[in-house]
Amino acid sequence: MRLKDKVAVVTGGGSGYGEGIAKAFCAEGCKVAILDRALPAAERVANEINSAQGATVALAVQCDVSSAADIDAAVTRTVDAFGGVDIAVSNAGVSQLPKSAMKVTAEEMDHTFAVNTKAILFMAQRVIPEFRSRGGGALLTIASTAAVRPRPGMAAYNSSKFAAVGLSKTLALEFARHSVRVNVICPVAGETPMLDKYMTGDPAQNRQMLVNTIPMGRLAQPSDIAAAALYLVEDASNFVTGTVLEVDGGRCI
Known about the structure:
By secondary structure, this protein is an alpha/beta fold. Helices cover 46% and strands 15% of the residues. The protein is built from eight helices and seven strands.
């Protein structure tokens, strides 16, 4: 069991990549708090995990990651339920409808950065003291290939993901001496609910357009991201920090 006796919090855990990560972690012996704005979605995932494991190893928590107070309360619930926290995955995110940078509003920039970037800092500020009390821990940011090879028409989203990588690397530098590791996964577009929400036009045509840009010829699956996440938070990677791992089927080559 690669994560035996570990405790994790996963934001945006009620669907998509977050759901895949939460389920993979629990299958490897971890206890997981599933944070999501939509409590019913988090409860569904937690119930499926607990049923599969035959024990209460997953906790559903409603949380708006753009709120430092919500993150504080969610981590406190996790510590109260499971005795501490060793891993935090900042996966929750928002995208945008494609538009010219000339038409992006201040409100759109503020909201995108609040969820995609500031939330990473809020989580780090809350969990790093918990990590240090346990001798170390792992922070993992789920960013995007938009931070490596941006697409046009996505100024708010692209810039928030570049900032997420920069923030994560800064945290890695600041807290390496405390055995706190901070790494980043950059997934390509994947089979998640967010894909269709932020695409206009014909969904099938849009998906094929994206697939055509990926050398391996398919979109990412939650299991692809979960497999990479497992490596970056387990003890086997205890000398890996500040890494940005592209899980993208060759998109960024």
